[in-house]
Amino acid sequence: MANISEIAKLSGVSVSTVSRVLNHHKYVSEEKRAAVLKVINDMNYTPNRNAIDLIRGETKTIGIIIPYNNNQAFDQMLHGVLNKSVEKGFSITVLPTQYNKEKEIEYLSMLKNKWLDGIIITSRSNDWKTIVPYANYGQVVSCEYTEHPEVGCAYIDRYASYLEVFQYLKLKGHTTVAFTAARGMQSVSTQQTIAAYKETFGELRPEHYISDCYSMEDGILAGEKLLNLHSRPTAIYANGDEVAGGIYQYARSVHIQVPDDLAIIGQENQPIGIALSLSSVDHQLIKVGEQAFELIINKSKDKVKIPYRIIHRSSI
Predict the structure, then answer these.
(1) Which residue ranges does the record assign to the HTH lacI-type domain (predicted)?
(2) Given this chain, do its domains 4-56 and 61-156+286-308 carry the same CATH topology?
(3) Which of 102, 154, 243, 266 has CB atoms 3.0–4.6 Å from 291's, for a disulfide?
(4) What's the pLDDT tens digit per position in 67-112?
């Protein structure tokens, strides 16, 4: 198989000129470019991408760490990254962890081995002390706020959004309020939700908080538990519109009227929430993904806050 040296010899140009042609460098005369391309075509030469990456000093590939797919929050962030990657001509490698710490480190090591130009972390399992050193080998961008100067971030002020939801429900006259979450107390989001709840309503009854909620089916089960309590909540803040939809379906099945008997608010403005006219907190996660991508390709370590919005519909 031909190599770059042979192509250079047959084209009558230097090896560096062949490299520039392979990398689509604009500073090559049309005459030399045509000569190189003719030899490449005649010899049916296929460039070794790894070799080109080494010459170019970049892979044009970005990794995105997600705990799992088929989740509305992570899917929206991934969607935002993919939007921008198509515009800019980058490839995206999806790196699912299922919150496995060792798997996350394995992916971060891809920066050290120069297999990726950068990594976007949508949600992490390791602490920042473990993650930050990998920023020495390539761009690391987080989708949550971090004060570490080595890591850029595109983030939402989640605590402010949780606090605004609970205060809104209180203003509407609700004092017995429950909420659902994905992960337990190991999650920063869950910790912030509990803190916002306590600031608004005081102590949290353990039965008014249900974790491990990801889907409509989980919402149905959460609705069954919460709406059969002796201290039945009059409002529920669900951690996603699909979960909220499940709670809504269960409430209707036992003749609890929304919003007369029960107020429901979800998150991320999903189609099911629109169809059922559920209020929702839109954290604009597609924009978070898009901004995270921009930080990566611009080699920026800025901290960029994306505004959230509360969408009011007839479920409250």
Answers:
(1) 2-56
(2) no
(3) 154
(4) 987 788 899 999 999 999 999 989 999 999 999 999 999 999 999 8
| Residue matched to tokens 């979450």 | 181
Q: Are 239 and 179 in contact (CB under 8 A)?
A: yes
Degrees, nearest 5: CA angle 113-95-141: 75
| pLDDT (0 to 100) of residue 39 | 80
Place of tokens 């970005």: 62
CA nearest neighbour of 99 among 74, 79, 82: 74
Report d(CA 12, CA 35) in Å as an integer: 8
pLDDT > 60? residue 192: yes
Give the number of other CB atoms < 10 A from CB of residue 257.
Answer: 9
Q: Is 235 helix (H, G, I), strand (E, B) or coil?
A: strand
State whether CATH 1.10.260.40 applies to domain 4-56: yes
- Structure tokens, 53: 């990456």
- Chain centre distance of CA 217: 23
* Residue 145 Ramachandran class (φ > 0 left, ψ -120 to 50 alpha, else beta): beta
Domain ranges of the chain: 4-56, 61-156+286-308, 158-282
Query: 143-158, pLDDT tens digit by residue?
Result: 999 999 999 999 999 9
CATH number of the domain located at residue range(s) 158-282 in this protein: 3.40.50.2300
